[in-house]
Design goal:
The protein is of the alpha+beta class. About 50% of the residues lie in helices and about 20% in strands. The longest helix has 25 residues, at about 125-150.
Amino acid sequence: MRILFFMTCFMLAFQWQAMLAQAEPVEMANSLLDAGKVNEAVILLKQETGKNPGDFQRWFLLGVAQAKKQAYEQAIVAFKKVIELRPDLAEPHNNLAVIYNEQGNVQAAVSELEASLKIRPDYPMAEENIADMYVKMALDHYQKALATKSDDKKLAGRYALLQKIHETPAPDVESAGDSGSAVESASTDVQSNKVQPHEDRSQLRAAVLNALEGWRSAWASRDADAYFAYYAENFHPAGKYSTIPAWKAYKRRVITNKKFIEVALSDTKLIFDHDHFVTVQFRQSFRSDSFSSEDNKALVWQRQGNEWKIISEGSF
């Protein structure tokens, strides 16, 4: 199963957003990272963690920035500090797994993913990551077995099949269609064996794309209530907003204070975990009267009844 891109293997997860040009250092750091100014963000966040050592979000963003620089040991320190301050968060464990995997420490990566899922069992990203790690571990064991049983055709066949699964990210590529919506380019469905491919896939895909377009349209229309309607009650807001009401108050202020908002989505990919969860990756172009940005974004949607709702969002 393909997983979200980060450091060539995993997606670095967390809900942190491109903030506007306001005075708060965390928002400034977000903007610097989105602009690709990683060194400047690291300098700012080191200063801020020194001033506010108990603020987990500053440590989290420092870990993100250090990981982007491939300063993995420093990133590990930062994410471990997040865990010390907020042991209830699953995301820093997932991100440590990203780093450990890059360092070749598969067992440590699996341990962090298991810890992540223990905290948050409904975490599709971590489920997907740990599945990929298990495949990677299985391939290593098959290689060792073949080293002593090179003439075992059945063993070689199983190894080849597993390797093909590991290296092939998607079984199909379909066009999202050119209907004039903001979802513009090819859309890739990656489905697990929990999805019935001939019965559910096309309907699920259409429903998710329709929800995505509704979310984009509500945001562009500056309709805060319609925008919030696409988020689930179990949505996990960005780190500094520990509750949904606090997050909504911030988002409502930001959305309604704009004179105009333009949002376009492209390079959209749908990654089905099973028939109730899907991660949607896309390139997001945002423009308003006071801010503009280009980001790679991921939304995790959950089917709740007959509707699809966002339960997690982040950049990658």
